[in-house]
Hints:
By secondary structure, the protein is mainly alpha-helical.
Amino acid sequence: MDPVRQASEIYRLTAAYEFPWDITRALELALYRTYAVPGIGRLLAETAELTDRPQKRYDDTSLLLDTIVEHGFGSPQARTAIRRINHMHRGYDIGDDEMRYVLCTFVVMPRRWIDAYGWRRLSRHEIVASTVHYRTLGRHMGIKDIPESYEEFEAHLDAYEAAHFGWDEQARRVSDATLDLMASWYPRPLAPVLRRATLSLLDEPLLRAFRYEPPGPLTRTLVRRAVRARGRVVRLLPPRRSPHFARQNWEIKSYPNGYRVADLGTWPVPGLRGCPVRRGGEPAGGPLP
Length: 289
């Protein structure tokens, strides 16, 4: 398969057959680390979506991105998902630099997570395909100056975080709400242990930005070894014969009776952080194909 012409097909195989659990965890971490940019964290706190309705926001984000992966950019379902994503973002004055950085996390964090914890490393074909898939998503979102290669995405992410990560009280609220959400998926007595385990998977810049006390070296070592051990067990399992998409994850809880893609997501709060000039009916990047 050609990693450019068939990028989304390869990415679908990677996400739904090879690494469904790892891709889910990596994209959770990708979105989570954006809160450490004060401008992004503050806006998310002001919308109150991640502090008041964290489960629904988590579900909607996962399902919208998953729709594009499952059905492909040319499908009616993906077109609807992209319009919903663009409609949500057009309601706020979000700069291209912030949008570009978030896109970088989608490209870089899955590769880093899988290389560290997956049952094998990503092949070059998979890395190129993932990069092209998210470049395509970025173009449909109207993001300017998107990096060309994986290496450019990675360099941009590292430089942006070095320049912009920092403390913000409202961003910390969003971070705490997200950690509480993840702990809520398990029995309540395990919450403190799960929170500590999650912090053990975060890197030093993230911990500093949110002013979390770093877990001890022993805790961090045990948690990371446990996640790596899971990858070694998965390596022994037979190949997956049917796809597993994010909509099938047990963490998705908001729609027990099903959902319509057109109903997912949020509707912008009038007057919050201003409004961009572009308000046409089409996505910021022009009509979808």
